[in-house]
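Predict structure. Chain length: 131.
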Amino acid sequence: MKRKMVLIAVLTLAILTVLTGCTEGRYTAIMSLERNSENAMEMSYFSFDGYKQKSLNLDQGDELEITMEMTTDEGDLTISVIGPDGDVLYEAENIRERAQSTLVADKDGTYRIKIKGNHKGGFKVSWNNAS
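Prediction complete.
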């Protein structure tokens, strides 16, 4: 009976890990509201310091359409896309209002959308694989 309970607990944790996606980071946020989905990251906060990122698996030739919005009360915030080799493929800092960009994956691999800064305000980044 005890082994069965442990197995159920482990399976539940594994399922929750898969369902929450690959959002990761190291940051401190004060008075924050966060919403993440398969195709978006959104946060509003009094203070954000650090980085948050989402990993995406793309095939060569995939088109990644990214829409970014930012509200800044104070500080700096950078949004970047990093390729499988660690190269920065796109970077935008302190966007005023809204920006869009389309990137084409030059090879198969894991790409990361990364938000980094010391910032007061909020952001919303959404993406779509147009291929």
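Summary: The chain has a mean pLDDT of 87.
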